[in-house]
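S.,

Sequence below, as promised.
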Amino acid sequence: MSSSCPPKRAEGQRQLHVIESYMLTENIRRVILGGEELAGLEIDTSLIGPHLKLFIPPANAVCLLWPEYDASKGRLVWPEEGERPILRTYSLRDYDAQLHQLTIDLVCHDGGVASDWAKQAKAGDKIGIWGPGARLSYRDQWLVLAGDISALPAISYTLEQVLPADAKGKAIIEVPSEADLIPLHAPKGMEITWLVRHSGQESGLIDAVSSVQIPAGVSPLIWGGMECDLAKGLRRAIKDKMGLQRDEYYLVNYWREGVPEGGFNHSSDE
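The prediction came back faster than expected:
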């Protein structure tokens, strides 16, 4: 990629470079990104689990191709010429405004475009981002954060950078290995529960979340990110067992078993 071919970009699109890439746990790889274009980036610190788009460039690309957002069509419009990058959605794990560094944790799996890129990423490699953004904000709710390992970065970020010291609630996280149990820095009032789901086992996440006893007199909110079918089952359990109103829970389809991103809808189902 070269700075001699600057593309026209939509607002919020930035070209960054890899500072460091390493394995954080048995199943998670951490990539730290930086660059001058992070200067001035402001993130609403009330956002729960903010995400961003990664623009993963083709191999040997001369410069990164960018789409523009066409408001009249409500979608991205790509230039007619040039090889497009591949877009993938990932949670923001950390943002250090003073160092101009942004951290992304990726779950490693064979054949994943972003996962393969992260495994090979080295200092100086260029990548584009767009965002971050989110749909929900923390408004002093009694909060339940729930998810499989794909939601661990979003839950970690929310515990560390969004919730105030007096926040109360629970975080319930299911991971595939004891090696993925990492230290989390959370307010004292946030109880953290780890579930380990070994290969071949049924998930315990639905029962764990739907069994939570929400205190009387609080404004509750359940936020979750997980595999699509797991989210569907949890959504049903929340409706049937917990009696919450539709605006009191929000589950994101982070991935679907056997389906690459682009083949399913990330949005929370009604």
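The mean pLDDT is 89.

Coffee later?
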